[in-house]
User: Which sequence fits this backbone?
């Protein structure tokens, strides 16, 4: 369980690390902030578009062997990023790493649920998902601190070493996990056609992820532009967001069992309120802190809710449904970073916050107007 949770931590921090390093990466590589955002776009796009095919093509591969392969790709990719002489090579490397990241998101939770007794499966899934909170509380802020101390190349080099350590942990500790609950590519893509609740969940995921990551990717330049924030303050802000996410993950773990729909709607409304606070009182340090902890809390609740919504919509084909969820989620991370970058470069960095408000509001409206029946959750 610890090895799988550590894997999630490594995959997520690697994917989102550029968010805390946008400004120094831009200055070092000689490209715009919006262009550096494509590092998130490239990895997210590969993770999203490739995962249904790779999961289906590897449906007969032992999941322990598959996870160790994915971690090896991650370790080599971080190493190449740390020594790459130019931006195109970094972008190409991130694209390849994205395929590995997407497959992990599709298989990781189901692996955790299989290695414990059936009565503890739901708890195992919640424990693994805590890796998201750990990544946001520790991983991304730590990357920002390491960059300020030794440069962004040192940050990625350290993450290459951590990826290798987790590779060893998985290889040594995980039992053999023959593939189960996997289907062909055709059957994967038929799921949302036959399954209306799953189709609605995927649309909500699209709106939510576009809005959240469209805004969150550009938190650092937004704060530098609106408050002249220092690296130290930005690090604090990222830790505050992650702490809020941990709290939200805990709260969501309690509320989704009572009302899955209500958890998603209330979490989304809190996220919208946090973004409005960022626009209105975000010129003051206390305003930024308050907005970011609320934003993180809301993200933790909504994130756990949408995974439970996927499980509830397709319990018998969870791995296949999660591959579609991962496709939607990671593709929208990519598109959110891309669209946010275009807004930041051509309209102004404040516009990305408005973009987030509108898209999250669409997700809330859709969830509030459908699926009024309370569904079972993790």
Assistant:
């Amino acid at each position: 369980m610890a090895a799988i949770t550590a894997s999630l931590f490594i995959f997520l921090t690697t994917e989102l690390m550029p968010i805390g390093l946008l400004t120094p990466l831009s200055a070092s590589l000689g490209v715009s902030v919006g262009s550096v955002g494509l590092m998130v776009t490239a990895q997210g796009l590969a993770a999203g578009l490739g995962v249904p095919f790779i999961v289906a093509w590897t449906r007969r591969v032992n999941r322990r062997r598959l996870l160790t392969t994915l971690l090896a790709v991650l370790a080599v990719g971080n190493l190449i990023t740390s020594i790459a002489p130019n931006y195109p090579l970094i972008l190409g490397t991130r694209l390849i790493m994205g395929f590995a990241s997407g497959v992990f998101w599709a298989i990781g939770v189901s692996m955790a649920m299989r290695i414990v007794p059936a009565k503890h499966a739901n708890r195992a899934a919640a424990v693994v998902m805590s890796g998201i909170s750990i990544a946001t509380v520790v991983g991304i802020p730590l990357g920002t601190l390491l960059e300020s101390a030794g440069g962004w190349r040192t940050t990625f080099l350290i993450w290459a070493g951590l990826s290798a350590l987790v590779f060893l942990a998985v290889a040594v500790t995980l039992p053999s996990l023959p593939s189960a609950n996997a289907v062909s590519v055709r059957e994967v893509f038929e799921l949302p056609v036959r399954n209306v609740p799953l189709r609605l969940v995927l649309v909500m995921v699209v709106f939510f992820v576009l809005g959240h990551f469209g805004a969150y990717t550009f938190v650092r330049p937004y704060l530098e532009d609106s408050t002249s924030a220092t690296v130290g303050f930005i690090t604090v802000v990222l830790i505050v967001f992650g702490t809020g996410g941990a709290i939200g993950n805990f709260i969501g773990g309690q509320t989704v069992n009572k009302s899955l729909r209500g958890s998603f709607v209330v979490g989304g409304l809190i996220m919208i309120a946090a973004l409005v606070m960022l626009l209105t009182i975000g010129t003051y340090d206390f305003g930024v802190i308050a907005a970011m902890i609320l934003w993180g809390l809301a993200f933790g609740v909504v994130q756990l809710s949408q995974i439970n919504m996927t499980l509830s919509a397709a319990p018998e084909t969870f791995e296949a449904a999660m591959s579609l969820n991962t496709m939607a989620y990671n593709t929208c991370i990519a598109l959110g970073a891309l669209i946010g970058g275009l807004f930041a470069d051509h309209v102004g960095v404040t516009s990305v916050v408005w973009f987030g408000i509108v898209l999250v509001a669409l997700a809330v409206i859709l969830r509030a107007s459908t699926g009024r029946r309370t569904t079972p959750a993790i």
